[in-house]
Design brief:
With about 110 residues, this protein is an alpha+beta fold. It folds into two domains: about 1-45, no CATH class; about 60-100, no CATH class. It contains one helix and seven strands. It has one helix at about 80-100; strands at about 1-5, 10, 15, 20-30, 35-45, 60-65, 65-70. The protein has a three-stranded antiparallel β-sheet, with no helix packed on it. A two-stranded antiparallel sheet has the order 2-3. It has a two-stranded antiparallel sheet with strand order 6-7. A hairpin with a 2-residue loop joins β6 (about 60-65) and β7 (about 65-70).
């Protein structure tokens, strides 16, 4: 029987832990007649490459008046798409700056 501390799990002789750092794996064998033998080993868990990425919101605006749900197999966003999005964001920020620049600032709505 195996166990992992401070966190993790073992299934048979396979032990895993998802928290980065050192873990102690303990193996215990029942020798019968109430006797046991055990041993320990250090399991070093290192940070690995990103396994998945969840984007929120799940809707991504790609082109004007067209929305698409994020799909990792979809074609990449083009330079034209990115330029359009940056242009729209810049125009929105400029409009807000202009409203706030007045004395007193213009009211929204």
């Amino acid at each position: 029987m195996f166990s992992v501390a401070p966190d993790g799990s073992c299934s048979g002789a396979i032990c895993t832990a998802t928290t980065v750092g050192d873990h102690t794996v303990t193996g215990t064998v029942d020798l019968g007649d109430g006797a046991t033998a055990s041993g320990t080993a250090v399991l070093h868990v290192l940070a690995g490459p990103l396994a998945s990425l969840k984007l929120r919101p799940e809707r991504l605006r790609r082109t004007r008046h067209t929305a698409q749900y994020f799909d990792p197999s979809a074609p990449p966003i083009t330079q034209t798409d990115a330029s359009w999005a940056v242009g729209k964001a810049t125009a929105a920020v400029s409009g807000v700056k202009a409203l706030l620049a007045g004395s007193p600032p213009e009211r929204f709505g």
